Amino acid sequence: MPFSYTAFGLTISSELELAELLAHDAVCDVTIQFGNVPENLDSPTGRGVLYQVTPQQFLLNLPDTARYLVAHGDSILIERAPNAPDNQVRLYLLGSVFGALLHQRGALPIHGSAIETPRGAVIFSGPSGRGKSTLAWEFQRRGYRHLCDDVSVVGFDEQGRPIVYPAYPQMSLWADVLDKQKYARADLRPVHSELQKYALPTRESFNAAPVPLFAVYVLYPVNTDTLEITPLKGLDKLQILTANTYRPRFMAAMGKRAQHFQLATNAGKFIHTRKVVRPVTPFRLQELADLIEKDWAT
Amino acid sequence: MSEIVWLASYPKSGNTWLRVFLANYLNNGEKPANINELNVGHIASARNSFEELVGVEASDLTPTQIENCRPMVYRLFAETNSETMFLKVHDAFLNTSAGETMFPAAVTRGVVYLIRHPCDVAISYAHHNSHSIDRAIEWMNDESHTLAGRQDGVNVQLEQKLLTWSKHAHSWLGSGLNCHVIRYEDMLAQPHETFGAVVKFVGLDYDTLRLQRALEFSRFEELQAQEQRENFRERPPRAPNFFRQGKAGAWRETLSVDQVARIVDAHRDVMQQFGYLDEKGNVL
Questions:
Q1: Are A204 and A164 in contact (CB under 8 A)?
Q2: What is the interface pTM, i.e. ipTM, of the complex?
Q3: Model pTM?
Q4: Cβ contacts (< 8 Å) between B56 and chain A: which residues?
Q5: Do the Cβ atoms of B55 and A176 come within 8 Å?
């Protein structure tokens, strides 16, 4: 009997237990099964070190963990390596593998973490290592509800307005971030047995319903002493949405560039985008969060 | 399909200066290249381009997994580009744990290896990291010294193993790749000859006027002036400036006899090989 879940606005039937996700009973959009996964795809239109792409298929190969085959936006096949720990199999499944599936479905996944504010959903975006999760965690501790960590899926409601689909109630945070905030990490589960990155459950503060997207804040740590928030307009706004799309090379190799550009354009019409400059060090997390809070309130 | 020229050096040996020169030479523009928009010599250990080409977050991979992905990343770089690519590298030339060389010969056009007097490197490296000169000397003598090696948080760059200052040089010069060595001191004292030889080595069209102008646009005073006008984004957060002195021989006034001795004891052979130590053991 497979498990049933909901995440990223999808209902999922899975043979692999995914403790991170919220349970759900309904018709399913996506099935996750174990089976034999080929080592290569026929005539890939794009590839990276660990992945191959065709317009309809995506293959991710994590040596010693698993091979994953994503097809037609509705199925994921997993062939796990002998003795691969469950949490590692789930780590790449819930990241790049779902990212590829969302691109296959023609969604707009943004590389960023999202929270719900009184104005709507706010995404903190940017390449990895810029403080997206740290900032989302700070707002969660300030009482805002959590929506997404690392990947925020943007879809559109019946009026064509952008909405954020909640992902699942968990944040991944590094040891140094938890330690700096004096958060005891003894009870937390590492996302990978060899990494000091921990899974922080957010079930109590998680909002499981889609929320209209209000703004995207893109983080830029630079050599400066100042914190600065600048509104972006026109082409800059569009550029920021396309540049911060999750795994754009997957999407491009699927032949979805034009469609993706249209999605970003449509989203851009309704939302605010901001460039956030912060010092590389110290992070000045509290001040930055105060400033962002003030920004969306006005 | 293109090939890669590795701009390889121990930190603080003139790599950024060479990149600024190459940017100016390639741009061949009317005014100096902006140091914050250098389109030449991106660092080979950058995280973001690694992640895009690998397909998963570097922060979800172990250091060993990352290392084993790197040779393939560079092959893909070469495959997806049409022009010669310059990549800056501080890593020593090492094999991955899977037994491959980190920087594959198959996609390498050549290596420009930059070397600088280790006594001056010690001063500059200390300044760069806001640490003491003694600490910098320890790093240069430490075979396990790495950049971006922290394990409890996220790094902007991938981990880079440097080895000691002399083993770094040995590793590249013994790599079997086509290496052209330039000394920082010669970049200062004979810029035409030194930079001109690089232009020829990497296979760019040699043009004296263009060379002259690129040298003018990458003069130390120009770089310093640009850094004063606007921040240099590659400056380490705790250091007051990146372009500090641009001189050779500051160690004579700055280092103690004991500090010099520690450097010489650890790096005698390579110092002699590159003219930083004479046969009698005098530091030059």
A1: no
A2: 0.91
A3: 0.93
A4: 50, 60, 62, 92, 95-96
A5: no
